[in-house]
Amino acid sequence: MKKAKGKTYTKYRTLQLPKEMVDLLLITSHITPLESYPNSIEIGFTVINDILSKSQMFSKDEEYPSHVIPMSSNYLKVKYGNDYSSYIKWLVNHSVIWNDLPYEGHSSHYYLHSIEICNNLIFSKLELTDKQLSDIIHTYCLQSNTQITPVTHDIKGISDVQKNRIYTNWYKIKIPITTKNKRYLTKDYEKDSIFINNAPKHIKLMGAHYRKEIDIDDVGATQHTNNRLANELSLATDIDDENKAYKRYSSRISSINALKNGRLNKTLRFNRNSTNKRLDTNLTNMASDLRPFIIDFRNMAYLDLSNSQPVLFNIILRPYRDNASDRVLKELDRYLQVTTSGSWYEELMRVFDVKYGPGEKITFEEARKLCKNIWMLLAYSQNNELRNLKKVFAVEYPFVSSVIKSIKKSNYNQFAISLQLIESDVFIDKICKQLVAENIIQYTMHDGLLVPKESMDRTKEIMMESLKHIIGVYPKIKVE
After folding, report:
1. Among 56, 48, 51, which residue's Cα sits nearest to residue 23?
2. Strands (DSSP E) along 223-305, which ranges?
3. Where are the beta strands (DSSP E) in 50-162?
4. How many domains does the chain contain in total?
5. Mean pLDDT, the chain, whole residue set
6. Are residues 306 and 287 in the same domain?
7. Which among 8, 124, 129, 227 would be 20 to 30 A from 303, CA to CA?
8. Each residue's pLDDT tens digit, 119-141
9. Which of 103-117, 259-273, 336-350, 368-382 has the lowest mean pLDDT?
10. What are the backbone angles phi and psi of residue 443, rounded to the nearest 5°?
11. Percent composition of the chain: helix, strand, coil (DSSP 3-state, to 5)
């Protein structure tokens, strides 16, 4: 609460969540309330929002038809308190969300239900009470001063059957912030504030600029997202394709809502990942097709390092040149030339004999995307997986293949983390630092930078020179 001239002003946290998920939470709380846990519904809102808004960060779960994120006990304890487990168990036991069990040191994954399951649960639970859902919502709003407003997305071109499986009806939920709920409603934002205030000067300036300037045309972005969904559904060949389209759709809607008035709603993210040192923001987790709706995007230029991860791998390979045989040097030179020219995925088309073009089943663009996925499989899978695929690659690049294998020997995730650490050092600690020193404040997308168009040439020059100093040659920088 903030007082001024005798008046009291209430601060709010605004969320936008699918109607069916909210209805399920409210009816469940009405029938089987958790009396021992205060503000239980608000916590439910934030748990649902976490899973919905962060699920796109975990690409390995993209194939799952619903939203899912891993949440460790440490994270839950810090955000919701030492007795968090009783409430999380209540959510799971009463089917508001569901989870799997932790395995091999991994955190439990928490999932949201599909719309069909939500509706079935709501219907069965409503039979246990004599109240209408609208009465339950109205009562809750009166008791908590929370404002719940329906928001409907009109998506043309999809059938009634398809509409029954997607979240086209949402609620805008405006929750008053109190001393009791402040910890979990604003904790992420306040944690980011502490990070920004204590960060090195250039990152502090980047964070302040991001929070002050970032905004999105939510109307245009939402319409684009609706149109994209209709198009994806028209191309879907089975229910799995449709489910993936629904998941991408709701992730995009969540991303849009988090950016719009994000500073006021405490939904902007700007922090540095403790594992890979990347700067994680709303933009780094947002679908690239939504970038054009960033306010003032037409006056910006996007620059990124072509096939960046394969290029940055040259930094790891560089020390192996010392005392290397002529055969190994020749292979390393070839790898360096192909990756830095931006042709790595085209090279993999040759290595794996991927046919494309007239008379073939796929286009050049599809072939390139396929080979990009092949690289991800080669680089980020366990050593004992995909052996036939890796044998083909090792024929052409035996030494490169052996280095990848050795890095992943004890922990297969270490190769990805190593490259991400290099990327963050190069882009955040070197390139961005120099740009800020020249008063060029940018938005970062890991291996790409969004800058004012008038700073485009100087930004490219700094990127090229910094990367040449580290890698040894000038790499290819794409400019959009």
Report:
1. 48
2. 270-272, 279-281, 300-305
3. 68-71, 98-99, 108-111, 147-152
4. 2
5. 90
6. no
7. 227
8. 999 999 999 888 899 999 999 99
9. 103-117
10. -95, 140
11. 60, 15, 30
